[in-house]
């Protein structure tokens, strides 16, 4: 089904499941199949269209009424934080089209101090400082109780921020920020706060910020009795409940994926070093979350998060097999080999046997020599040690 057909009547046509009496097994199986197809369609919706769908749902008269009577509530995810982190990113970015992520990646420690200042001052004061310079750096250091080292980091970061802002506001720069150039939908930030990782939604008012929908069925039963609702209205509301249940499936799965990435790839997120990436497949993630692998594939498609180092990364990039990690480590060892050969610190290129020994000594990975030879030759396309005589002829 084409994306452009997934709006308007799409919602009624694809997400409203008819209630049918379970008269025989064939009807029941067909209904379940329809439900799975509709759920797959919902998971396949691009983020922008999904947000539009949520908006339509929440503007429905039945939804507003049930929200008013607290039959429907928002249940925030315990692992999601909201507030200053996202707001102050927006404040910093509002001055121009420069890449804040690039500045953050160059100076992650300075960014931590900036967040401390922003949180202490509050949005209005910090905004005034950025736009009008009403507070001096000395006054900020005093009010925020910054140490001498923190004051220096804050000053350096803000100086760099201003240089970027001036440069990227220039008509001649022709540069684009990550957000304007990216083909991915940025859905969350992962922040490193005192060594602990936290998830912040890219948009506090979006579904990750608000959480999943919950239905209080006891209140619902009382409402039916007290309000004497017509059978037609009850039918509409029951259909709404089924739609919310499917929406929750998508929201909860996406949250679960980001949470598991944060937990399992924490070392890689903090260091940015590919060697720290833990082998994790989409099939393994599906088993962890109790869903089908195709659901994971649909959930991560064209979505990204921003790492603690300020780099925007597709969700798909966090999934890697053990083979891919070993290939990356072999490539690392061979790059180290090239550097040592060029400096005269190594008399000859490393044989596959020696690469095997390095993997065991340095990374604790045991692997057969012929497996290394296979990966080196067939996947990495690196010649043997006998052929690697000139360090400039490989690993370009």
List keywords for this structure.
alpha+beta, 20 helices, 396 residues, 4-stranded mixed β-sheet, two-stranded antiparallel sheet, flat
Outline the structure in words:
60% of the residues lie in helices and 8% in strands. By secondary structure, the protein is of the alpha+beta class. Among the domains are: 3-77 and 200-317, no CATH class; 322-393. The strands form 2 sheets. A 4-stranded mixed beta sheet has the order 3-2-5-6. The chain has a two-stranded antiparallel ribbon with strand order 1-4. Helix 7 crosses helix 10 (148-169), helix 16 packs across helix 17 (293-300) and helix 19 crosses helix 20. The protein is flat. The protein starts with 8 loop residues before the first helix and ends in a 17-residue tail after the last helix. The model is unreliable at 1-23 and 163-181 (pLDDT under 50).
Structure, briefly:
The protein has 396 residues and is α+β, with helices and mostly antiparallel strands. The protein contains 20 helices and six strands.
